[in-house]
Write a structure and sequence with these properties.
globular, 3 helices, six-stranded antiparallel β-sheet
Length: about 180
Amino acid sequence: MTKQGDIIVNHRTGQQMTFLKTGAETEGSLLQIDCYSPVTLLREPEHIHPFQENRFRIISGELTFSVNGQEKTASAGDSISVPKNVPHRFWNSGKIEARYIQEFAPAMKIDQLFQTFFALSRDSKLNERGIPNIFHASLIMLAHKNEIRLAKPSWTLQKLAFKTLAPFALLFGFRSHYS
């Protein structure tokens, strides 16, 4: 379980997260994270949070956001809010490391997803796009279907593919959480 003050690092991207407020501490209403992202050309896949608002407050540096197909750069002092179910992604296209406060409301289990992906990055188990093998991804994405989904293809197709692959993933020894 994630606790206030826990720090995780994505060894693939260099992103660091320090948990300021967790779902357990806010009765599920909020996850608040102090984040650092180095300058990078790497971009996470476009995704949605079907039941969560995702907010960003830039402390220093800048981040570029693609929200519903529209790109915008945010600098120190700017805030960005991504409503639930809106396709988005972000990256640091600036000249210095970016620091920002990221929030998810409600918290749900998104902290567990971050822990899993950052641990997979530590053990070099993500591809160049930041995704584990398709079998492992199927279990993770099904376990976190209420927190995150790829923007494309449709959730119906994703769910069908993941449910088809999940039994094989279990046979291969994969689990939905990785630490």
